[in-house]
Amino acid sequence: MVIKDGRAPLPQLMCSAHGLTAVYLRSVLVELAATLLNSDSADIDLPSIVNPILQAHAIDARRLMEDNFYRIPIYKIFKLIESLEMMFADPLLGIKAIDQIRVKSFPILGYAVMSSETLLDAIQRLSRYEPLIWDVGHVRLESGEDSQGEFVSLIWEEKIPTPATAVEMAIAGWIKIGSQLLPAGHQPQVVEFKHACRTQGLGSQGLGSQGLCSPQAYEPYLQCPVRFDQQYNRIVFPKQWLNQPLLDQDPHLSELMKIEADKLLSNIPLGLNLENELRALLFCQLDNPEISLGDAALHLQVTPRFLRQAMSERHLQFRQLHDDVRQEAAIYLLQQGHDSLADLSQLLGFSEQSAFTRAFKRWTGQTPASFGSAAP
Length: 376
Hints:
- With about 375 residues, the protein is of the alpha+beta class.
- It folds into 2 domains: about 20-265, no CATH class; about 270-375, Homeodomain-like (Arc Repressor Mutant, subunit A, Orthogonal Bundle).
- The chain has helices at about 20-35, 45-55, 60-65, 75-90, 95-100, 105-115, 120-130, 165-180, 220, 250-265, 275-285, 295-300, 305-315, 320-335, 340-345, 355-365, 370-375; strands at about 20, 70-75, 135-145, 150-160, 190, 225, 235-240.
- The protein has a 5-stranded mixed β-sheet with strand order 3-4-7-5-6. Strands 1-2 form a two-stranded antiparallel sheet.
- α12 (about 295-300) crosses α13.
- The two termini are about 25 Å apart.
- Mean pLDDT is about 85; it is low at about 1-10 and about 200-210.
């Protein structure tokens, strides 16, 4: 459905089930805050620092801190990254946060990777289990040879359109993990990105207010030369590394962690990512006021009883999710300048405009008209 001006009502990402685990976002925010405040991460009172910006992006701060199974919708993550980058006028912000992350911050995935026998085993495991953290990209290995000898490219390919900062964080994450698996001195030969080297000065004064960002600024964090405007997002390293034994290899622990990780991976749509699967359906069916749990069960190819039980285990309520999705969509559309309340009411599945106005006032304490006029 479109509004009368012909614009698509919502970004496609709002209608997708992609998400990022709270464990990862929490770790990134802690290290980011520590970097910005020049403080030890153990001393950071994270809620007091990040709650306002989390609230502005409809991210549940309490669940972020307490619920390791909370997966934040990826459209919220991408908007949060954009806001943080603009706020601090630093295109290296994401990479700086990743630079401090430890593999062991992710209990099952981290130990499953660290206990692997060789680097190749670890790469294959991390590639397989990366959806436990987020599900926006995947990697493949490609061999080659040049004047320096045989090399391997670890190529990260996005599944959905992904902002440059998120791509850089993904590549930086792979490098950081590798540095914790191998003995000192193992540095990539080169890192390449498909996007252009971005400008510094991303704040309110406008792009480029501090001049162009140099690729050399990335090198202390990525440990090698960095190139932009390339064919792939990739890390290049000597092929012989693939057979390098890992520092913490442990066959017994490796098998135990593999079993646990496989359990989580086998049921992501109806387990770890159930909430986002339901939210995606509700966004896609936004103008359908009659959508029911039975419809959701049919969409997920399970029985209503099974879905009801799965939701109960995750403390989810279908009508509450429906209400939350309507609220987020209404706020987004008003902020984008959609000012026809009649059209919005229809799009959001309300029977009449007065019902939408009452719901919006319950959500925000304001009428849609007053909220829309105050939007930037």
